[in-house]
Design goal:
5 strands; alpha/beta; homodimer
Chain lengths: 185, 185
């Protein structure tokens, strides 16, 4: 079984090589193959920035099509929600009927984070125009489409409390996803 | 042709009834049918919040499967990126091989917004742990998976400058998407 390793991991140092390497090693221990979005990607020479982005999109889609499921790092990234590229990938795999699993290293529900975002006035320099919009409150880690997809796959989003500063790198939640998958196989 | 109307529109007053109604009327003028995520959804009685969220997920997926394409409102929502539920839906439709279109009522590229997020220290009350992560810079409106999907469909993300306060409701960008689609049909 090939598992696509979705997440903002690729924005860490050296395209997240260390974290993604550790994830692949963990996968191997559970008898599955972890596939990094970066696998086989070369810096495309001579392309303008937009075309480079498109080339990476194409490679990521190819990886997803070659995989049998996804484990997504849903930890909030640059804001109160998870990385939108990862959200796209969860939707992509859900539509393909492949198992969708995910973990977040921040345990508060989405509603709690959104309320604190407005209460702290953090939105004022960012998107003041969202003031007064309704906040979904389904006791889920993020927008309901994510938890919905994981639930529809027969799994549960893992919420993991980790030490400050380890939010993007701690792997307990990732391993808990592998255990969920193992129980099902 | 049935078009799924993805976006944070549903978080506006009365589940975005006014905005989604206006989008449907515009769709009709272009000879297509706009499908709102809220169509036919009843407040599910007697369910706990999580199960309510799952019920909405299921209904949204049914709507997406019944549609032939999507126009996504990609305007940044509660942060520097678009709504993650909408991102999920773009991925879902891309995997199904259906045309993916989108618009943003904020014109800055993602890189510009992300840099301003850190420069203004807006991240400090939100996700300080993302400090130092690399910022993708492909002259795209958001994470490359979105623009990549729109591009792979043969379209372009519409960037629309609108009056302050109209970011979530202005429809010029939406109509520009309908025109792109019309030129292709």
């Amino acid at each position: 079984m090939r598992l696509y390793l979705a997440g903002p991991d690729v924005f860490l140092n050296n395209f997240g090589a260390e974290l993604l390497g550790a994830k692949k090693a963990l996968c191997a221990r559970y008898g599955v193959e972890g596939v990094s979005p970066m696998d086989g990607q070369l810096a495309p020479g001579g392309l303008d920035p937009f075309a480079q982005g498109v080339a990476i999109y194409t490679a990521n889609v190819r990886h997803m099509r070659s995989c049998d499921g996804v484990i997504a790092n849903m930890t909030p990234f640059r804001g109160i929600s998870m990385d939108v590229g990862t959200a796209f990938e969860m939707g992509f795999m859900a539509a393909a009927g492949k198992p969708v699993l995910g973990y977040s290293n921040v345990t508060d529900s989405y509603a709690v984070r959104a309320e604190s975002y407005y209460r702290g006035r953090h939105h004022e320099g960012v998107d003041r125009y969202t003031e007064g919009t309704s906040i979904e409150s389904f006791d889920m880690t993020d927008n309901l489409m994510m938890a919905g997809a994981v639930h529809a796959s027969g799994f549960e989003v893992v919420r993991c409390r980790v030490a400050a500063g380890q939010e993007l790198t701690a792997l307990e939640g990732f391993e808990a996803c592998l255990r969920q998958l193992q129980r099902r196989r």
